[in-house]
Amino acid sequence: MTIPAMRDADDAGRRRHDAPMRMAVVGPTFFSYTQAIAEEFRRRRFEVAEFDEKHSNHNAAKIMYRVGLAFNPLSPQPRYLLQLAEQIISERYPDVLLVGVEVISRAFVAKLTEAGVRVHLYMWDGRANKGRFQQYLPLLSSAATFDIRDAEELGMTYIPLFAEPMFGDLADPTAEKIYDIGFCGTVHSARVGAVTRLLTADWARSLRLGLMLYYHSKLLFGVKAIWQRGALTVLPRISSRSFPKKVVARLFAQSTYVLDIPHPGQTGLTARTFEALLAGARLLTFSAAAARMLPESIADRVIVISNIEELAAVNMAVAPLHAFDDGERYFLSLERFVDQLLEGIAAFVQTGQIVE
Question: How many domains does the chain have?
């Protein structure tokens, strides 16, 4: 993969006279990625309003969404989405960007498009995990994804994810590393077994581990852990509060390697990939496609593993890495990501595929 040419961010936001300058961004507010994208649009002088896709983020609501009850007859979610669509229409936002959404309905998108609002989508998860967007994909003005397989099979635009600037700000190739392996993530699916092995395997006892483990309910994790061998070892290390992004960036900058365990069923490069690399760490990943989906000069910092036991053979005493050049940093950046989003949005406006 080649590195995209760098652009001036302010010029990128204005280089097409008909690019939308007002936008509503809808996504999960738990993750800061949505806010980071919105802030980058604001830096380019867009007027941006942010909205949560969910009616509530309390634990009871999270459990309801997790078990697929978001649209049952007693759920407030459909009414919430109807009211949100009405607000966006009444405030005359010409464009809506859906980012990493999970519980947006076809009815919500249809109401917006029938009112003349252009709706755009970016997914940072694969359809195998969050496939509801396929119900309204034909209604969208533009659709992009981090998952190259979904892009090819569904006709979406492939746009890799990004790292926020703070990860690069904390990178210091000359600083001594505190941790051999750093990891930050929600402890679900295959991650439970992987983290359990890191905490219990004989070969891992000498490793300096920096672990930031999250689960929305320690009680629920404890109940689930009863049925997974050794998983209760993980419970004391779990936080039910999210970690500040600067704290995560510091962990990655202080780690020789960062471990990346993608969700099953997705082929895209995770945000952790970009964050770890920009912070100056090497990447240990279960993503078989990671090396070939990165520019060659960046891919040499990536080791692909197929199971957690392979970490026993990884050399922890490696030489310091050199700093990235401007082009490499641009590829990993939020700036490049928003440049590519704008290209997709503006292309639909320019080609006349959207009726004003």
Answer: 2
